[in-house]
Each structure stands twice: as structure tokens, then as C-alpha cells.
Structure to design on (217 residues):
């Protein structure tokens, strides 16, 4: 796995090196044309995958370790994001949006999450997750109208238990703001039924449950 990660990290330069070796084999009399073709092929594969697939596979380990700086360095190594295949490009913009949200830069988060949604994903779950995140950004900006729109769109799509619970908790806050306590309690009950294992989601459910238990309606 480490060797594969190193290959991903340095494949562009490996591709350039293969191209140079191929040229030397062909024109400097160091080998025959068939040996050169092998290196040309390796060069094309390495450079093509660098620009069209990118290094996003490398973010998994630093994300699990909470190394945001390393994740940002990997993201910055993508020189031309518009060349990435669509599902990868969507993930690229989502990553930037998530980091911006963590830094409370909600304008940057919203911009990149909208770009991710515009690119689209063949996986409904990824599309739903992006909608949930857009809803959370709008909620942070007190844009309740857009927030509700995104959450409702997300809830119509296949979501994992954590994202579904987050969307429903967002709806709780929206309806609390509308002073529709009955609807808020209904959305909270649905969030509980998601059985989320996410610690932050579980803590938010407990807090809202305590708060709404004291509110008549």
C-alpha cells in the first residue's frame, strides 16, 4: 500500500522520467524502438492518471488521523481540477468545502459545495451528502429558506444514517425558528430513529431533546 501511495504521489515525475528514458533509448542509441515504446506507454499512463484521476486517494489516511494540513497539501497538488473525471472532481470540491466549513469559512464552503453539486455524482449517497452539507452551510448563515430546500432535497435521496440524522436535525432547528414546535419534535423523533453512531449527532439529539422537552407544543 505504501508503495502504491508513493507511486500516486510521484507518478507525474515518474512519467516524465519514463518519457526521457524512452527518448534516450530511441535517439541516443541506448536501446531499440520496442524498449522505447514500453517507456513511452508507461509515461502516457502515469501522466494521464496524474491529471485525470489525481491524488485524492492519498487523503484517506491523513483524514483518519485528523491531519488537515496534509489533506490541504494533497488537494493543492491538483493543478487542473477541471481535468479530473466527474466523480473525482465532485469529491475534490466537496473536500475543499468540508475543510472550509471546519474553518468556519462558510462562503468558500458554499461555493465549493455548489460546484460539487453542479458536477454531480453517479452515487446518490454522495449527492445526498453534498445537499446536507449545503443545508448546514445555509443554516449557519441563517438562510433558513435555502437550508430547508437543501435538506428536503437530501431527504428524498438515499442517505446513510448519519447524514439523514443531520438533515432531520437541521429541519428541527428550522422549525424551531418558525416556532412550529410540534413539527420540530416530529423531525427530532425521526432523527432519533436513524440510530446515528456519530458522536456529534448523538450529542445534538440529546441537547435538542432536553430543550424541546421543556417547550409546550
Amino acid at each position: 500500500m505504501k508503495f502504491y501511495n508513493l507511486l500516486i504521489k510521484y507518478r507525474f515525475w515518474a512519467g516524465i522520467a519514463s518519457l526521457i528514458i524512452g527518448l534516450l533509448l530511441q535517439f541516443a542509441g541506448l536501446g531499440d524502438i520496442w524498449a522505447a515504446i514500453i517507456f513511452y506507454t508507461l509515461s502516457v499512463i502515469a501522466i494521464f492518471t496524474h491529471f485525470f484521476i489525481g491524488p485524492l486517494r492519498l487523503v484517506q489516511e491523513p483524514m483518519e488521523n485528523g491531519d488537515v494540513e496534509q489533506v490541504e497539501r494533497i488537494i493543492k497538488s491538483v493543478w487542473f481540477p477541471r481535468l479530473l473525471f466527474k466523480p473525482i472532481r465532485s469529491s475534490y470540491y466537496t473536500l475543499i468545502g468540508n475543510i472550509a466549513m471546519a474553518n468556519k469559512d462558510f462562503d468558500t464552503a458554499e461555493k465549493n459545495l455548489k460546484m460539487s453539486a453542479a458536477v454531480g455524482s453517479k452515487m446518490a449517497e454522495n449527492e445526498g451528502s453534498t445537499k446536507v452539507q449545503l443545508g448546514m452551510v445555509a443554516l449557519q448563515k441563517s438562510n433558513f429558506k435555502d437550508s430547508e430546500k437543501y435538506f428536503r432535497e437530501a431527504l428524498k435521496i438515499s442517505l446513510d444514517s448519519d447524514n439523514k440524522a443531520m438533515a432531520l436535525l437541521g429541519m428541527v432547528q428550522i422549525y424551531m425558528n418558525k416556532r412550529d414546535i410540534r413539527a420540530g419534535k416530529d423531525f427530532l423523533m425521526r432523527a432519533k430513529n436513524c440510530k446515528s453512531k456519530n458522536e456529534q449527532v448523538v450529542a445534538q439529539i440529546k441537547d435538542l431533546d432536553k430543550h424541546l422537552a421543556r417547550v409546550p407544543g
About this structure: The longest helix spans residues 2-27. DSSP finds eleven helices and no strands in the chain. Residues 97 and 109 are 4 Å apart (CA to CA).
